[in-house]
């Protein structure tokens, strides 16, 4: 089967907005535009919420998977499951099983062995396309005008695509990624998991010249799922809402055990909403570099916060001060339909 016939559902579209989202152009709860997105994910609990949010507020053209929260076979299985659950009949392609350098790293203490521990899983009846994640990313970037890549896992697939075709950086509208932080880490004192899992890939992406939007821990740790959010979903009672509530229950318990946090951060939906609802964040231009060699800081996103004209020109729009209540309301609405 040819790549073109495999990806028949990836269609050309007209961009809905300029490549750089402009904040403060809509009331809370309204989408500024409905962008075309390709989701690149390591399907865990918050990735599931990201798929629900993308289905509700964007035009999803494809999903690609990467090793991260769980091994690649499991993250791919989970992506097929959640995409079908939320009615996304789009190409899903399996991506990288390991980072560009070193061994694969996973997060079973947070997401469980399956990557989606908590609820019982319905059977998966769909399959991946006969094309690699990199092929799907590059093909979609040619087919879909104004395409945003939304990355919620390690950046291995995207870095590999950029290595094969560096013009990808200028052809897409942008790359919105959940990863990094302007301050603290989670998998180490300095590094957030997605960047820590493949720093070499992140380095390629951040040096690519693409229009980058980084939604890191400094923002996502303000968007916490608490018990009343679980209760609200249970009260909705739809199969999707109950499934997501059970995911949240496991996710919250994991964060309490691992980090002592009473709520679980909804990291990945924020990277989607950064494109569809950018007014819910305060984006500031910053120069960001990836530490690939530090003994204690490997995987760190070093964000230049100096405000007096020193340092390199900004290469990233970094998210600050999320409108957490509005974000959580949008996620709830998307997850419970």
Write out key terms for the chains shown.
14 helices, two-stranded antiparallel sheet, alpha/beta, globular, 337 residues
What's the layout of helices and strands?
Layout: H1 3-6, E1 36-41, H2 45-57, E2 59-65, H3 72-85, E3 92-93, H4 108-111, H5 133-143, E4 148-151, H6 156-164, H7 168-171, E5 174-178, H8 193-197, H9 199-206, E6 212-215, H10 217-220, E7 224-225, H11 227-236, H12 239-259, E8 264-265, H13 267-276, E9 282-286, E10 288-290, E11 301-303, E12 316-320, H14 324-335
Parallel strand pairs: 1-2, 1-4, 2-3, 4-5, 5-6, 6-12
Antiparallel strand pairs: 7-8, 9-12, 10-11
Helix pairs in contact: 2-3, 2-12, 2-13, 2-14, 5-6, 6-9, 11-12
What does this structure look like?
With 337 residues, the chain is an alpha/beta fold. It has helices spanning 3-6, 45-57, 72-85, 108-111, 133-143, 156-164, 168-171, 193-197, 199-206, 217-220, 227-236, 239-259, 267-276, 324-335; strands at 36-41, 59-65, 92-93, 148-151, 174-178, 212-215, 224-225, 264-265, 282-286, 288-290, 301-303, 316-320. Strand 2, helix 3 (72-85) and strand 3 form a beta-alpha-beta unit. Helix 2 packs across helix 12 (239-259) and helix 11 packs antiparallel against helix 12. The radius of gyration is 18 Å and the shape is globular.
